[in-house]
Amino acid sequence: MTAPFSHPEPHPGGAVRTDMWVVVAEFTGAGTPNPFVVADLETLIAELAFWRPSGLWSDDRYAVQLQIAAPSHYQALQAALACHRQALRVVGFAPSILHRVEVFKAEELERDWAVVEQPENDVGSGVHCPPVYLATRALLAAVTSADVARAVDDFVVAIGARVELGPSRHLDGTTDVDLVGDGGALRHASAEAFSVSGLLLEQALPNLVVDARRALSRVRIKQSPATPDGSPVGDRR
Hints:
This protein is an alpha+beta fold. It has helices at residues 38-47, 73-91, 106-114, 131-141, 145-158, 196-223; strands at 19-29, 54-58, 61-70, 96-105, 162-165, 174-178, 187-192.
């Protein structure tokens, strides 16, 4: 693994303040058609593991996201690009050209992801929301097990992934996540590895599945026949 760079030394009289930055850099091929394969990006991401990386891939370009502790956005950018160059030399990746780069404060990026835009005086209609928020609302409103499964399936489709029968196969080049079920056939969500859909599956779906299992338990309790004292059957001690 590529060795981490050391942090700046404290100035006399006080320590240098560092913030956590997220650097997203996109690279294109250096004149060669379709120069990148997904296995190369997997190797590069593994080499950059110290900086909690994620990646996106297509035949003619790729992007990496790194988390860097640095005093300023400029120093975070310089450190991220230096780490990327060093990792390229180690893994022997195809030559690439920096196409686009963005730098964000990690806390601001997390806050932006958490914001849901909603028009004034228009609660519940015309709302522009991320798919995971819509799925969470659907789980809260679910009254049957079919409602729970549909909420998760709708999220998978909304982010461009696929719902497939059977357990996760974890094939090369794919990202798979098992889905919640209700005693029926096993199902899983699948997307191309290092695609936007695959990244969203990895980041959001596992937590959504946990919420779906809780919703499913709630639905089952409500649907269970009650005993004379009002508690669901099988819930007495």
